[in-house]
Amino acid sequence: MELSLDSPMTQLSGVGEERAKKLAKLGIETAGDLLSHYPRDYEDRRQICSIRQAPLGPRVCISAMAAEHPRRTRIRKGLELVQVKVVDHTGTLYLTFFNQGYVERAIRAGEEYIFFGAVEEQGRRRSMTNPIFERAGRQTVTGRIMPVYPLTAGISNHLMASLVLQVLPCAREIAETLPQSVRQEHRLAAAEFSVQNIHFPENESALELARRRLTFEELFYLSVGLTHLKDRRQGSAGRPLAPRPVEEFLDLLPFRPTGAQRRVMEEVARDLTGERPMNRLVQGDVGSGKTAVAAFASWLVARGGGQTALMAPTEVLAEQHYRTLSGLLAPAGVQVGLLTGGLSAREKRKTRDALAAGELDLVIGTHALISRGVEFRDLALMVADEQHRFGVSQRAALAAKGGDMAPPHVLVMSATPIPRTLALIIYGDLDISVIDQRPPGRTPVATYVIREDKRQRMYRFVRQQVEEGRQVYIICPAVEEDPGEGEPLPDLKAVKAHAEQLQQKTFPDLRLGILHGKMRPREKEETMAAFARGEIQILVSTTVVEVGVDVPNASLIVVENADRFGLSQLHQLRGRVGRGQHPSYCVLVTSSRSPEALQRLRTLAATADGFQIAEEDLKLRGPGDFFGDRQHGLPQLKVASLTGDVALLREAQDAARALLAEDPRLSRPENQPVLRRVRQLFSDTPDIFN
Ligand code: ADP
Ligand code: MG
Question: How confident is the model at residue 408 (pLDDT cuts 50, 70, 90)?
Fold first, then answer.
């Protein structure tokens, strides 16, 4: 039966119910899905070697004739061998197959085959174990560049490749979705050619063309969607606020702003007093002073009679912002409220009522709390701290809200330094301001990597800091020794047990506190507040303090099992210290023996620049760290390698802008395929292009 793009996998030969289920785990249910399951790498099987000249080690193709009928032997239950001798004009190769009984009949004496495998040598005897083989002249998986696929248990690469070969003719049906003009201008290969060659490339240049087209395509649809969202926001009416001299706000601050802070405040002021809704990202490394910018924006809005909602990623951070901002803005008569899960039902209702009545100018809470149907009298500004948890689709949904009212201004703040390529994609719909300067008097945090043998010395240093009046964080990767289900975590420092031990054995005379995500919100808040007041000297915590927490008196952070964390995450943690005028330290404790792990940690120790660290992290770990949990709210990208494709990304963005300039709503018949693809890609944002 003819296969088509919609054929279910069970229609392929070699796929029954079992295999179909396994393939479904990879998201492959139809022939079409299989065609868009791209290889992650390639293996060059083009060169055919002779038996004598074949290099030892790497897998190679050898063309040879079976010199005998294969011999099948049963060694014991569950272990069976098939052995056969093959020859070419240079020598003899001894083949052994384990538990592949079918080989006995598949290889016939006197016939020519191509064998693909690693050649081994003992004395002058050359051999190969479990080679892949096929009849010479009827090759499909040897003698060419072979794809290497992402796999799942029970599906081998060989099987995957042979399935793709079965459906490859369906590539004919793939409709060309890129407009002809775009393909011509950017020299992009046709869809059919590209799909065929991304799987089974004819040669290197065909592969390059295929990859270029498919990457461009992906980035292009993404850019069309993002650019459209941006245009739509800019096309809608804003709610221009009356300008106010920035100095009036600066008088409220306990410090002089840095030049960068001041510049960004002016940029924000220009947006807020302009005709269009603000849609701005403020990016600044940890400790660069982003909170002051948020305070400024909400002050300006309150002055104009509007309300602001500030969303923090954690309750700990929401409560801290509440303390800071209410203290800062109270003298200006700005009413600030807090809305977190830790409050009693009565307190929450009070805050909600006050918001609806317009008695509060600024409310601070977590993302969940604010988005869940809170009513405002006049919501004019949304501030999202730590933006990567507030993705494109949330921003789009927000922009669409407001009904007849103009959409609120949006200010997004991120300390997560995101590499340039990623930023261009993730923030494609935002204007960007960068705070590229630190408050004065800060010295970089001195960072050390140590092993277990220095633990006692490190504890003496902790004590010394506390005796000088400073405070210390000790970060552990786990909450409990054994999380109950699943494997126990050997060697991982767990907050509870570690804190107990430190309190009893190491620092019986010091005041320790404990903080982790499983505590009740109330307890968390009390602990954090006690640490902020200096009552707790050593805070033993999980990474809940990772983002945003600000206690300037803390001068030392110790990270246990540091090799378990990503570099960017460690940089964020390190950002908890070095916020005041005291010399500050970060000690990374590891017992890892892996040279790469140590190298990573040393990179961190040697670098203070968050952006550089993020680039490094991206190189070492791939975009998973940024894209892992889809919190960015962006569609999944398949081919776009996010480190290297900046130039192509720019081309795709240009093409997207050009297309939308000509056909802003994608209403022309020839652009319908583009519209469909963008809608598919942005399925989380169903009203795009409505
Ligand atoms: P982040 O950018 O990480 O959110 P914060 O806004 O929390 O940084 O600021 C970090 C610390 O630096 C805070 O204690 C804040 O009061 C202080 N700070 C911010 N700006 C300045 C400045 N211009 N001069 C001195 N201290 C500042
Ligand atoms: Mg912050």
Answer: confident
Helix (H) or strand (E) holding 316: helix 315-329
Q: Which domains does the chain have, with CATH numbers?
A: 47-143 (2.40.50.140), 241-274+289-414 (3.40.50.300), 445-607 (3.40.50.300)
Q: What DSSP state is assigned to residue 674?
A: H
The gap from C-alpha 250 to its chain's centroid, in whole angstroms, comes to 37
Q: Using a 6 Å cutoff on CB, does residue 320 contact ligand 1?
A: no
310 phi and psi, to 5 degrees?
Answer: -110, 120
CA distance 258 to 292: 11
Ligand number nearest to the C-alpha of 293: 1
Tens-digit pLDDT profile for residues 601-650: 998 898 888 878 877 776 665 554 444 333 444 555 666 655 556 778 88
CA angle 475, 481, 484 (to 5 degrees): 130
Could you tell me the two tokens for 79?
């272990």
Q: Is 578 in the pocket of ligand 1 (CB under 6 A)?
A: no
* Window from 81-90, 161-170, 366-375, 399-408 with minimum mean pLDDT: 399-408
The token pair that represents 102 in the structure block: 């079918």
Q: Which of 381, 376, 329, 386 is nearest to 353 (CA)?
A: 376
Nearest protein CA to atom 9 of ligand 1, as residue: 289
Minimal-distance CA residue to ligand 1 atom 15: 289
Q: What is the pLDDT of residues 277-336, one digit of tens each?
A: 888 989 888 788 999 999 999 999 999 999 999 988 878 788 889 999 999 999 999 999
Question: Picking from 133-147, 246-260, 507-521, which range would have the lowest pLDDT averaged per residue?
Answer: 133-147
* Substitution candidate for ligand 1 out of 250, 291, 555 with most atoms within 8 A of CB: 291
More confident residue, 442 or 168: 168
Phi, psi (rounded to 5 degrees) for 407: -65, 150
- Separation between Cα atoms, residue 209 and residue 53, nearest integer Å: 33
- Is 0.90 surpassed by the pTM of this model? no
Mapping DSSP to helix (H, G, I), strand (E, B) and coil, where does residue 414 land?
Answer: strand
Per-residue pLDDT reduced to its tens digit, 213-264 = 998 988 898 888 888 877 777 777 778 888 999 999 999 999 999 999 999 9
Atom of ligand 1 nearest to the CA of 290: 2
Beta pairing class for 279-284 and 409-414:
parallel
Rounded to an integer, what distance in angstroms lies between the CA atom of residue 350 and that of residue 354? 6
Please provide the distance, in angstroms rounded to a whole number, between the alpha carbons at the two ends of the chain: 41
CA gap 77, 60 in Å, rounded:
32
284 lines ligand 1 (CB under 6 A): yes
Per residue, the 3-state secondary structure of 337-357, as one string, reads EEECCCCCHHHHHHHHHHHHC
Tokens of 366: 């977590």
Residue type, 606: A
User: Cα(363)–Cα(126) distance, rounded to whole angstroms?
Assistant: 76
Helix 672-681 / helix 204-235 crossing angle, nearest 10 deg? 80
Ligand 2 ion: Cβ-proximal residues, 5 Å cutoff: 290, 548
| Secondary structure element (H or E) that encloses residue 397, with its range | helix 392-400
Q: Ligand 1 atom closest to Cα of 324?
A: 16
For ligand 1, is residue 421 a contact (CB within 6 Å)?
Answer: no
Contact predicate 79/13, CB 8 Å: no
Q: Which residues of 661-675 are buried (b: 16+ CB within 10 A; e: fewer)?
A: eeeeebeeeebeebb
Ligand 1 pocket, residue 439 CB under 6 Å:
yes
- Write the residue with the smallest CA distance to atom 16 of ligand 1: 289
